Amino acid sequence: MQTAEAQEPVSEASGQNEIARGRLLTFGSLTHAALAAGGVLPALCLVQIAEQFQLNDAQCGFFFAVSPTVTLFTLPVVGQLSERWGKRGLLVAGMILLAIAMTCYRSADAYEVLLLGSTALGLSCACVDALVSPLLVDLFPTRNAPVMNLVHCCFQVGIVGTALVAGTFLAREGLWTNTFLPVTIVAAVVALGFAVTRFPPALKHATPMRIGGLLSQGSFWLCMVVIAVAGGVEAGILVWVPTFLQRQFDMAATGVWLTEQLGLVDPEPLLGGIGLALFAAPMVVGRWFYGSLAERCGYVAILMVSCVVSAVALVGLWWASTAATSIAWLALLGLAMSGVWPTLLIYAAAIIQANPQTLFSLLAMAGLAGVGICSWGIGQLAELSGDIHMGLCALLMPLAAALAALTALSRITPPATTPKH
Length: 421
Known about the structure:
Elements: H1 2-44, H2 46-53, H3 57-85, H4 87-107, H5 111-139, H6 144-171, H7 181-196, H8 211-215, H9 218-248, H10 252-262, H11 268-297, H12 299-319, H13 323-337, H14 340-351, H15 356-385, H16 388-393, H17 396-412
Helix pairs in contact: 1-4, 1-5, 1-6, 1-7, 1-9, 3-4, 3-5, 3-15, 4-5, 4-7, 5-15, 6-11, 9-11, 9-13, 9-14, 9-15, 9-17, 11-12, 11-13, 12-13, 12-14, 12-17
């Protein structure tokens, strides 16, 4: 009798923990979707923003570089604060900062207010990048791959949905400032969700490791290079593709058809949104099978194939003469890059001895450095050459660096086809 009575509270607590883990997985997924929407909306509205504030390509590139730069320098601080205060408060703060960023964009009356919004967005990204992945690793230690790919897949779902909905809204002559309101509401709801949800104890506790021990591992530095390239290439395309398609090609025929079918006033924003969605949609599909391919073929091998296919797609983009051909090459690029970031995180956690929170924070810093450099660099090259095409195809250089790093990684680490838990 006593044994049965003692087991009841344990079973009840276990059930409550499972419910809490499910809720946190849901909020983590919504966090990535909201962050994706908040990050991609300025790119969709870039033509309108540039016209209203009279910005050149270099200023636009700087505008997009502010957020990842702020995140880069804030990530270590967030990691340290989470060890003292816990993850809950910082995740709530991150979502509140996202709502503040969207409010700054909506109410902007000067370029400086836009930069303030980008700063708040960068702080929000720091909270998410530093805390969500380690939280999921703690809560689902035996299901890292599917959980990580699911959450990162929601990031791409947020991009696709935002591109199509916001693009249609702008094409109907909706005010670009109003596109940020739904993200503000979602961010507030997710913040409330994190505030009231119970955080269950971790199922697996990582062994602490000094930062010096982590920095002395060669595989860590090689993973840093690869994730910097992954973040930079993906962000560079996401930021500049809508503007690239609207400037580079005369899409009058397609625009007339869309105008007649959907009753649009200005079809160009929707055309840019469709191009962005067709880049991101294959990433959603790719993330469903990327993890299983990596387990079968080997993690380094599949990452190397991704880099090669991405390079081929960029070469094809350089020679593309029509919008349809360009979008086809962009879709191939999106498919190739679909699982590089989450797969590299899983592989790094398997081969590098470190606390997951510390490791993921440092890798995210490298990825964000790539985001900032590539977003800014494409703008600078576009301003100097007068052609965004040149800036996008310059992404071949970081891809070559990633391929070299992966080649070195395959030689200094033993082959691993399945992450160790």
